[in-house]
Structures are given as structure tokens and as C-alpha cells.
Design brief:
The chain has 126 residues and is mostly helical. The chain is built from seven helices and no strands. Helix 5 (57-68) crosses helix 6 (76-97), helix 5 runs parallel beside helix 7 (102-120) and helix 6 (76-97) crosses helix 7. The relative contact order is 0.13.
């Protein structure tokens, strides 16, 4: 499903937290190639990592939406939060070992979302 359709479907939700998150997402601007290159060169700074993670938010939303159909206990925002944590983890790994690629960040996002689903699905949540 296209990203714009996912956002439209999320806007129809009655949850005020989702609405507030969507307002923040709509205010974010995608990074240009030059900005992305600059932030990648300075990725050891926390402000640069924050900007780079924000640039992955559309991908996180897309992946979270695809997995939200498969989980019974987690809400969409929970999956998005796990995906964002996965993006931060990939940049943390990069700071330690110096290895970073778009594929590594995307894989980390998917892994964190899958792990959160495995932790909660099949368990009784009160």
C-alpha cells in the first residue's frame, strides 16, 4: 500500500495520540542528498542521528502498517516506536563498528518490529 494511503487511513483513527503523531510527521521534511551526506559524515553526533532517523520515519510507518495486520495486541504506534528504536540501534551499531548502510538500518527496523510482536503475541496482556 502506498505511504499516502497509509497516512490517510491513520488519520481516520479516533486515537488522539495517532493524530498528534501524524501532525508531527507532516511537519517533517525529507532530507536532500546534500543534507543526508552531511549528516552521514557527522553521524556520531546525536543531532545528526536524530535527523537521519527522522528521514526513515516514512519507511518505519510503512513497515509498521504491514505488520499491524498480523498482530493482535500491539497498536500501530507501538510498532512505530519499536521501528524508531530499531533505527537508533542501527546508528548505535554504526558508531561502535563503523559499518552503516541503508539496508542495515531497514533490517534493524524490521527486526525490532518483529521482535516486539514475538514478545507480546501469544502472551496475555493486561
Amino acid at each position: 500500500m502506498k505511504y499516502k494511503f497509509i497516512l490517510q487511513e491513520m488519520k481516520e483513527a479516533s486515537d488522539p495520540n495517532v493524530q498528534a503523531f501524524l501532525k508531527d510527521v507532516e511537519r517533517m521534511k525529507r532530507l536532500t542528498k546534500q543534507e543526508k551526506d552531511f549528516y552521514l559524515k557527522t553521524r556520531y553526533l546525536s543531532s545528526s542521528v536524530k535527523k537521519l532517523v527522522e528521514d526513515f520515519i516514512p519507511y518505519v510507518i510503512y513497515v509498521a502498517y504491514s505488520y499491524s495486520q498480523k498482530t493482535k495486541t500491539l497498536q500501530m504506534l507501538d510498532l512505530i516506536n519499536e521501528g524508531i528504536l530499531g533505527a537508533y540501534a542501527a546508528f548505535d551499531y554504526s558508531a561502535k563498528y563503523g559499518i552503516l548502510s541503508k539496508r542495515r538500518v531497514q533490517g534493524s527496523i524490521k527486526n525490532y518490529i518483529r521482535r516486539s510482536m514475538n514478545r507480546t503475541d501469544g502472551q496475555i496482556v493486561f
